Input
Amino acid sequence: MASNHASLQVGGFVPFTTVDYPGHLAAVVFCQGCVWRCRYCHNPHLQPFDGGRWSWENILALLAERKNFLEAVVFSGGEPTAQACLPWAMRAVRDLGFKIGLHTAGIFPEFLAGVLPLVDWVGLDVKAPFDERYDRITRKKDSFDASAESLRLLLASGVSYELRTTVHPELLSPVDLAAISLSLESLGATPTNIQPFRPEGCADSGLVAADRAVGASKQPHPAL
Ligand code: SF4
Output
């Protein structure tokens, strides 16, 4: 965990989007810092906790200017739940009249449980079946435990959500995707939304080269 209530570390800001919160016009705050190192991460510049490039006070001022045009603000990352000040930041945004969206990989389930009452919609990553295959993507031991617990907490909360799975054929096979589907079904969750690997920004040259070689980002995954 990093930072305190004084200042959310923000690495990027998108003032207007129609695709990051379903059915809503939203702004996106990209929180700085993440403790996982997913091979396909396309925002590796957001991984270090280096303070970020944006002042939180300026972000709030920009949002205040847009409160008649936007419906929601999405906290994305990086990993928003890695910052202890996230609840304060969410309350400040709610006080401006916005709905709150959260993009998370479910890295900190206990912390997630604490902020869910402040959140109107969650986009949760399901990166792999909930076993050691998870760790191959995140490069963090036992990361599947946190992710599975976050999903359970999200489902119990009743908060609206969407599950997302990024697919690169070198990281997830058709068998893996079938295992994810079975797990989600057994938990009573909605099916996950498949997102093709995006080479833009990815620092893993092996994945990018494989994607270029087979056109993986342009061809449907064989399991789809
Ligand atoms: S959890 Fe998200 S931000 Fe963190 S390394 Fe993985 S893809 Fe990147």
